[in-house]
Write a structure and sequence with these properties.
Elements lengths: L7 H14 L2 H8 L3 H15 L4 E3 L4 E3 L1 H24 L7 E7 L1 H8 L3 H7 L3 E7 L13 E5 L7 E15 L1 H7 L5 H4 L6 E2 L8 E5 L2 E5 L6 E2 L2 H9 L5 E4 H9 L4 E2 L9 E9 L7 H13 L3
Helix pairs in contact: 1-2, 1-3, 1-4, 2-3
Length: 300
């Protein structure tokens, strides 16, 4: 029998039962085996280990020093296995850690306001939120859930749609006072357009021109790695920024930023998804609870 064919945890369980119940017959009843099968199993275990574990007599079992050590380690290992199975179970109780990967904009403006309610509903769940605008490998980053935009490219992932938001071009009043307010795509060419420093599905800004949607390229002079940095640069008067509506909603309402070129904004939407590993298999209760909560509470 190869080492891979040996059921070590099964052997340990029978051995522990025999010790705790004081005999092979009682262990056989508890494990649904025959006394002779238990005796043979213990003998095979001893032969494989090269050590006698139990001194047998007609009245009782007596552990050898090696048997005592093996019994103590078996108890600990079986407890660890039981704990691992409880932790991995897709039962109804949401407990344990969840690692969420999301953009800074979504994390700050959409997710953060919802976190207190989620924690109140699931106090046994702990959250770790990592902000990045880049698409990451969920397994490599140890992420349970990622918030992403656009269609999935990885067939091993499953996505749950959270909603759609439109994109708005904004600028600070200070910038518009200094540089003027662009009224057309031609005038836009004269302005600083803050871009992203990583590859995106649409690199330029879609705008309407003569009834058609064209893509206006972003100037290379000012690029950032995330939407929140772009927002702060726009607030500082560094240039124009094209951002999701939820990112700049409060700034527009407080007159910190103003929309521009709305009359030629095609109103294209950006879809947001909660993404997780696996297709159709059981999910841990903690992950399932978060996905359901986001689906029911995210408003874009």
């Amino acid at each position: 029998m190869s080492r891979q064919d040996i059921n070590r945890s099964g052997e340990m369980e029978v051995f522990v039962r025999a010790v705790e119940l004081g005999g092979f017959t009682a262990a056989a009843t508890a494990c649904r085996m025959t006394p002779s099968a238990v005796s043979k199993l213990i003998s095979r275990l001893e032969a494989r280990l090269g050590a006698r574990l139990i001194n047998r007599s007609t009245r009782r079992l007596q552990l050898t020093p090696e048997g005592c050590a093996f019994y103590e380690r078996s108890i600990a290992i079986l407890a660890d296995i039981a704990e691992a199975e409880r932790y991995a179970s897709a039962g109804e109780q949401a407990t344990g850690p969840i690692r969420i990967n999301t953009s800074g904009s979504f994390g700050n403006h959409v997710l953060a306001p919802l976190i207190p309610s989620f924690i109140a509903l699931y106090p046994a769940v702990s959250l770790e939120i990592v902000h990045t605008d880049k698409v990451v490998d969920l397994m490599e980053e140890r992420a349970d859930v990622a918030i992403r935009t656009g269609p999935l490219k990885n067939s091993s992932l499953t996505a749950r749609k959270l909603g759609v938001t439109r994109k708005i071009i904004v600028a600070s009043s200070d910038y518009l006072r200094r540089r003027g307010t662009p009224r057309s795509t031609d005038e836009l060419q004269k302005h600083c357009r803050i871009g992203f420093a990583y590859t995106r599905a649409v690199e330029g800004w879609p705008l309407l021109s003569a009834g058609k949607t064209i893509e206006v390229p972003v100037t290379p002079g000012l690029q950032v790695g995330d939407g929140e940095a772009m927002r702060h640069l726009a607030l500082a008067g560094a240039g124009l920024a094209r951002l999701p509506a939820f990112t700049v909603k409060a700034d527009i309402e407080a007159s910190r930023l103003a929309p521009v070129l709305e009359d030629i904004n095609p109103g294209d939407g950006e879809e947001f998804y909660a993404v997780h590993i696996g297709q159709g298999g059981p999910l841990p209760a903690r992950v399932r609870a978060l996905l359901d909560f986001l689906h029911n509470n995210v408003r874009l």
